[in-house]
Amino acid sequence: ADFTPAPQPSPQFQGHRDLMPAKARHNSLFCFALTRPFGAELELMRMQHAHRTSIFDCEEHIVYSNESILLAQGLTTQVINVSLDCEFGGERSSFLNTPIFKEVWVEVVEGSKFGNYDWTVKVDPDCVFFPDRLRTVLSNRLGAGTSNGDSSSQSGIYLSTCWFGMLGPLEVLSSEAVRILVAGWGQCETHFGKLCGGTCAWGEDLFV
Asked: Rounded to two decimals, what is the model's pTM?
């Protein structure tokens, strides 16, 4: 990778009860996912939680949806007041979900938990994600995501997850990058709107 400036789960899926590492590590991770309130995505989130895998192996995690859903004991989705329906198409033949994730990223910043961790990781429910492998990649930039000062004096960093950039299933941003992204979203909409002659037919990953 390159660096660039509800019911309980089935008994067979029950795992350990400790959801969080006892102590935050270097290159600590705040991870989140957005799930539809029904169907395969929801079941994947429940299975991952039961096995303490994917975002549930991060130091902190949140699952967003547009409905309040009990995923497991002590775990309820955080509600985003936006429709999760969007068109498919555009330059990358992908879901045109930029307006949806704009609301999600705003909620991440307003919730403020992300600022306690070095890196923020957006993970799709059907993405295979191993947090420890990401920490290994990040180890070469120990502390690069930390936010001890204000973002205006520090450069944000994101991780290129593909040869042509960052793809939506896994998005990794430093805490500074998250602040810069949300603070400048409106400015970027104006800039790209002029280039596209209107709303750009992009998915959220291309916009970011």
From this structure: 0.79
